[in-house]
Amino acid sequence: MTQGNGFFGLDSSVRFEGEGSTNPLAFRFYDKNRQVMGRSMEDQLRFAICYWHSFTWPGGDPFGGETFNRPWMRQGGDPLAKAKEKAEVAFELFRILDAPFFSFHDVDVAPEGETLAESIKNLNEIADIFEEKMKTHRTRLLWGTANLFSNRRYMAGAATNPDPDVFAYACGQVKAAIDVTHRLGGENYVCWGGREGYETLLNTDMKRELDQLGRFLSMLVEYKHKIGFKGPILIEPKPKEPSKHQYDFDTATVFGFLQKYDLVKDVKLNLEQNHAILAGHSFDHEVKLAYANDLFGSLDINRGDDLLGWDTDQFAMDVKEMTLVFHEMLKHGGFSTGGLNFDAKIRRQSIDPQDLVIAHVASMDACARALLSAERMLTDGALEKPLADRYAGWDKAENQAILAGQSSFEAVAERGLGLQPQPRSGRQEYLEGVVNRYVY
């Protein structure tokens, strides 16, 4: 890695040096050209650099303010000029990390104007810069989204707001964001509902708000088809924060919602570990349930802190946790339009520009190592064979007939009268040991 000019002081891109390397600015496991289950490692992992936490988050937390003090965050000056400077630094990082994708919120790439029309003009001006940059950079757009939660107009939600004018404003903002996403060749569009929920039921009509949200998404799906956008609409489940309860609480809740409003065909899920644990689930649980209901779309690859009750968005480093998720993903053929989006923040004490590079490198390596463990585990049938053995009885013809609706309740109950089944071990500790052998 060559020291040089630019915000990060690095001229060359991060390279693969192998497992023996101790260079924090080199990959030890992420060899993008290595074949994993018939696809390159780059194509299996499909890393995306997240625009907002990487270039917009100032380093604050619920108890303290900005610590990063980056040039484009300082008070004063032309907001659009600072947005253009931020775009330059963003593509510098994309080049250094040799990133195949990036993702963005509308208001993170361009400043909000006095009116919606002015905000859209600003967004398109920055999109012009992205379009030119993408002609000479290999980085593509994984997905775009609209920020419908930061501005005070959305304090009572966007699609679920009691004021129809706010609903209409949100429609205009999302239309502009998906138009830019489509124009830049984005592979998905994400709907984030940070305030689509309630703080108190005393002033909330839940049925009305859910119907509004269902109509909003239905209109968005109709518009997606109208403009020829081929990728899925993604919803990111999140149980709380900032609202006490959010309507996209978890995978199961969103599945019920999509069924009710006939949106299952066009809407999939963008899942995140941090949100899973806030909902009282594991990351693996949410991914498996999404696959079980044909809702899997994409992943935000970060982690939370089990000791803190909010969305800390730390860089993903837990190889074992990710191994289980990637095992499930590889079992189903890997990503189609989705990828691993680094919706992650460096810690507020990590104030050096290169800390942002090092965080991505370390997390990309952790993901790569987890992918290799998952590949070995799947190839060996280490978990699949014990799982098949556990349910083998259901493969018999008479039991398949039950599941196919070819046996009545009375007939099955009659069969049960002549049986004396005995319990079999679930072998949990054995399986935990198997996973440890592949991970460690």
TrEMBL record:
InterPro entries: Xyl_isomerase-like_sf, Xylose_isom_bac, Xylose_isomerase. Belongs to the xylose isomerase family. It catalyses: alpha-D-xylose = alpha-D-xylulofuranose. It comes from the Bacteria. This is Xylose isomerase. One of its GO terms (molecular function) is xylose isomerase activity. Mg(2+) 2 binds at E272, H275, D311, D313. NCBIfam families: PRK05474.1 (NF003998), xylose_isom_A (TIGR02630). GO terms for cellular component: cytoplasm. The lineage of its organism: Bacteria, Pseudomonadati, Pseudomonadota, Alphaproteobacteria, Hyphomicrobiales. Homotetramer. The active site is at H105, D108.
